[in-house]
Design brief:
Elements (H helix, E strand, L loop, with lengths): L3 H33 L7 H11 L2 H14 L5 H20 L3 H19 L5 H31 L14 H12 L29 H34 L6 H14 L9 H20 L1 H6 L7 H27 L21
Length: 353
């Protein structure tokens, strides 16, 4: 019999993924409208539309393991909807030409292969479904965004119209050059998007969480964040290996790891939807860890009290804010920072003069 907490978390996770399943339906409706509308569209409309799909690439890295979790649910409608959503996650990832996302999805799939292989319950069936999802997703992509458009417009395929400009190495190098001038405390949180920096591509964030934290908070802030991250993920993985856990835990932990990995080439920590999902997965993982806190601490030779951990987090936040304040005042000058209306918050904003 399922515990009450397990049922509540399951319902919560399903409520989180529902809007994204409907988003897939909306994109498909728009696609059908383009194909059968009396308006004389060109194939370029699909190339432009990929930008909207690419906007949720960061979310897909966090959602993919959760969709997989629900394809084995006891409720048939939930299984079917999650199965379709997982297939379209693959298809839309291929459509958006998200190379970083594809690498993360492959990584998450390989980890799931390993996890299922060591699972004692229907491991062959689970691995078979994973392979089938990738195959169907690839076929759906080919039919919808390669075959049909080529038959209707008799032009280039969509994939040839959505190539990336490859700007990441350029913005990473430029960001690191600025960081070298202020290595200890950085230039201040959200300061990357200041137009006066003169970046070749002013994209609001450097598409790399490590470089962004290093540039805006310096070595001091970066080391604090790195220490906290290492302690948290080490404990989370140790919990998976050595302790009993609820069914959702491996999938939410994998979602958190996958989202963090994609943040190395994307804006997971700054785009509002993916940022929100990342924090949710972090909280769900933390809830699982805290459920066995007494057992965990009893097996450690050295442990920190919960009060000390909370105080450490608060001090970390305080010092990051303090460093940002002084960075604004003495590095960026007296110009006011006006937060952009969106879609980027927390670690990034826009300077408006």
């Amino acid at each position: 019999m399922k515990s009450k907490s397990m049922i509540n978390i399951r319902r919560f996770l399903f409520a989180v993924i529902i809007p994204f399943s409907f988003y897939y339906i909306l994109v498909l409706m728009q696609y059908v409208f383009v194909l059968f509308s009396p308006i004389d569209w060109s194939i370029q409309v699909l190339a432009v539309g990929f930008d909207n799909v690419r906007f949720i690439n960061q979310c897909q890295a966090l959602l993919f393991p959760i969709f997989i979790f629900f394809i084995f649910d006891e409720n048939k409608p939930i299984r079917v909807s999650s199965y379709l959503s997982t297939i379209f996650t693959i298809a839309f990832a291929l459509y958006s030409n998200g190379r970083g996302l594809m690498l993360v999805l492959i990584f998450e799939t390989l980890i799931l292969f390993i996890f299922f292989a060591f699972s004692q319950h229907k491991s062959i069936k689970m691995i078979f479904h994973l392979i089938l999802i990738w195959l169907i997703g690839a076929v759906v992509y080919y039919v919808l965004w390669e075959l049909i458009p080529s038959l209707i417009w008799n032009e280039l395929s969509v994939s040839e119209l959505v190539r990336s400009v490859g700007a990441r190495p350029i913005i990473w190098r430029e960001a690191l050059l600025i960081w070298r001038e202020y290595p200890l405390f950085g230039i201040g949180g959200m300061a990357y998007s200041d137009p006066s920096n003169g970046f070749t591509y002013n994209l609001g964030h450097p598409h790399n969480s490590i470089i962004q934290v290093l540039l805006e908070y310096g070595l001091v802030g970066f080391m604090l964040v790195l220490l906290f991250s290492m302690l948290f993920f080490t404990r989370a993985i140790n919990h998976l290996i050595n302790f009993e856990f609820q069914k959702h835990y491996p999938f939410t932990l994998l979602a958190l790891i996958g989202g963090s990995a994609l943040s190395l080439v994307s804006g997971v920590i700054v785009m509002p939807l993916s940022q929100f999902l990342w924090v949710l997965m972090f909280c769900v993982v933390y809830i699982e860890l805290s459920s066995n806190l007494k057992v965990y601490n009893s097996k450690l030779k050295f442990s920190l009290s919960v009060g000390f951990q909370r105080a450490s987090v608060l001090m970390l936040i305080f010092f990051l804010l303090l460093f940002s304040f002084f960075s604004y005042q003495y590095i960026m000058g007296q110009d006011a920072l006006i937060m952009d209306a969106g879609p980027r918050f927390w670690l990034v904003g826009r300077f408006i003069y």
